[in-house]
TrEMBL record:
It comes from the Bacteria. GO terms for molecular function: DNA binding; DNA-binding transcription factor activity. PROSITE patterns: HTH_MERR_1, HTH_MERR_2. InterPro entries: DNA-bd_dom_put_sf (IPR009061), MerR-type_HTH_dom (IPR000551), MerR_fam (IPR047057), TipA-like_antibiotic-bd (IPR036244), TipAS_dom (IPR012925). SUPFAM superfamilies: Antibiotic binding domain of TipA-like multidrug resistance regulators, Putative DNA-binding domain. Keywords: Activator, Coiled coil, DNA-binding, Transcription, Transcription regulation. This is Transcriptional regulator. It comes from Streptomyces caeruleatus. Pfam families: MerR_1, TipAS.
Length: 262
């Protein structure tokens, strides 16, 4: 039985233009012609079209499909295995993106609601990079501290944010002064500033033992998005993030020393 190009287009779910393109590319040439010269497709042609559409659905290019159909028995398995690996990787990537998107929604729902003008008034230059926020949420999502921090942040009022950001700005000015004065990162002044930062986190967000504070400071030194949460780019100096990290580590070591608590 033979079918016209219009009939094949209708029941295969492809356009006539696509069928013409397959013909010109030598991928699917109809086995017959009508008396008027119109394309006619037979059952063998339809079986080949089904294979083409199957491979297209899997993401193969027309050149790859042509190579496979030259000798399906020899070429199909290797190509399909390679495609399966790529699809598995893509599935994993999309699952991670879905998780990030879900966390982004959660982050957007959490926290005080401010107009743009109010946000600038309260936060000034401090920006919240959503990509970092969602990655941090994924990284710390099973941490009780992270959950407590998100819950407390959500409960803060505009005045709470104004007060805590004022405290943060005053601390930041002292940090910059210590750095610019050449204070050693393991010196008492730097360690005291690190301790003040740890207590600020505990006061406004979540209990922050020294080990957690070290991990937070490690992020400051390795991820500019994290450091921008405490020091906006316009106020940063080369080496400042590493300086703060070392001060935090030195303070954590100091607090771990029983002699320091006497």
């Amino acid at each position: 039985m033979s079918y016209s190009v219009g009939q094949v287009s209708a029941f295969a779910g492809v356009t006539v233009r696509t069928l013409h393109h397959y013909d010109r590319a030598g991928l699917l040439s109809p086995s017959g012609r009508s008396g008027a010269g119109y394309r006619l497709y037979g059952d063998t042609d339809l079986a080949r079209l089904q294979q083409i559409l199957f491979y297209r659905e899997l993401g193969f290019s027309l050149d790859e499909i042509a190579e496979i159909l030259k000798d399906p028995q020899a070429n199909a398995l290797e190509h399909l295995q390679a495609r399966l690996r790529k699809l598995s990787e893509e599935i994993g990537r999309l699952q991670r993106l879905a998780e990030v998107a879900a966390q982004a929604i959660e982050v957007q729902r959490t926290g005080v609601e401010l107009t743009p003008a109010e946000r600038f008034e309260v936060f000034g230059e401090i920006g919240f990079d959503l990509s970092y926020a969602t990655e941090a949420q994924l990284k710390w999502q099973d941490s009780p501290g992270r959950k407590e921090s998100m819950a407390r942040a959500a409960a803060h009022t505009k005045e709470d944010w104004r007060q805590l950001m004022g405290e943060a700005a005053a601390w930041r000015a002292e940090l910059l002064a210590a750095f610019d004065d050449g204070e050693p990162d393991h010196g008492e002044r730097a360690m005291d500033l690190a301790e003040e930062h740890r207590l600020h986190i505990a006061r406004w967000f979540t209990t922050c033992p020294p080990d957690m504070h070290r991990r937070i400071a490690d992020d400051f030194a390795t991820d500019p998005r994290a450091f921008a949460l405490v020091v906006p780019p316009s106020q940063q100096r080369p080496g400042l993030a590493a300086y703060l990290r070392k001060a935090v580590h030195a303070n954590a070591a100091r607090r771990a020393d029983p002699e320091e608590d006497r």
